[in-house]
Structure formats: C-alpha cells, structure tokens
Amino acid sequence: MVGTLPPAAGATVRRPRQVWYRNHSDIDMRGEAIVMDVERIWLAVGFLGQAFFSARFIVQWVASERRKQSVVPVYFWFFSLGGGLTLFLYAVYRRDPVFILGQGAGLFVYLRNLYFIYRQTRLAAAS
C-alpha cells in the first residue's frame, strides 16, 4: 500500500477477512462488508419457508389427534402454499434448478387442492 509503513519487527499483521462481493453495494463507505447483507436476508427467508413447510405436518398431526383419525385440514394446504412459495423464491435466488422444479411443481398441487376445497364449500352453500 502506498503511504504506509511496514509492520514493526515481531508485530502481528492482521489480514483482512476474505469476503466475496456481488457488487459494490455490499461495501459501506469505509470499504467494509455490510453486516446484514443480502445473503443473510435470503438465508432467513429460506429458513422461514422451511418453518412454514414444516408447520403443516404439526397442523395435520394435531387435527388428526383431535378427530382420532387421519385428516388433512385446510390449514395444511395454506401452510404448504406459504412454505412452498417462500422456498420457491429462495430457490430462484439460489438459481438451483432441482429445487426450483420441486417447489414449483408442488405449488400447483397446493393451489389445486385449495381450489377443490373452495369449490366444495361453495357448492355446499348453494344447495
């Protein structure tokens, strides 16, 4: 570096942490990485999607225990849709084609089941 003195004999040289930047917006005015960067936000989005997706099994389990038989409540499909959509967006950000295909295909199933439930309740109300 220009204008700096070499370290004194026996002094430890602090090496900068290696950071991979996507663009210059990841660096603040002092040239340091921003603590709450985009990667951490997307990681939180991914964990949130996984939490929604996992919650659907708890919802199904509780509903089945209450009825003492296997049932799939409507909230199961809403949690599936919320978790699937969040994980799909996370997969698109990660550019993972396997993950995108898996979550994308599931979204059609969740939406179709919600449509069937909506149609069934509408027909029941009409008759």
Textual characterization of the structure:
The chain is mostly helical and 127 residues long. The chain is built from three helices and no strands. It has one domain (24-126). The longest helix is centred in the middle third of the chain and has 30 residues, at 38-67. The mean pLDDT is 83.
**Helical proportion, percent range:** 55-70%
Number of strands: 0
Low-confidence stretches: none
Order of helices and strands: HHH
Question: What is the gyration radius calculated from CA atoms?
Answer: 25 Å
Largest sheet: none
Strand content: under 5%
Helix-strand category: mainly alpha
Terminal residue distance: 82 Å
Instruction: Tell me, briefly, the overall form.
Output: elongated
Count of helix runs: 3
Overall pLDDT metric: 83
Number of individual domains: 1
Furnish the topology, listing elements before pairings.
Elements: H1 38-67, H2 74-94, H3 97-126
Helix pairs in contact: 1-2, 2-3
Summary of the model, kept short:
The protein has 3 helices and no strands.
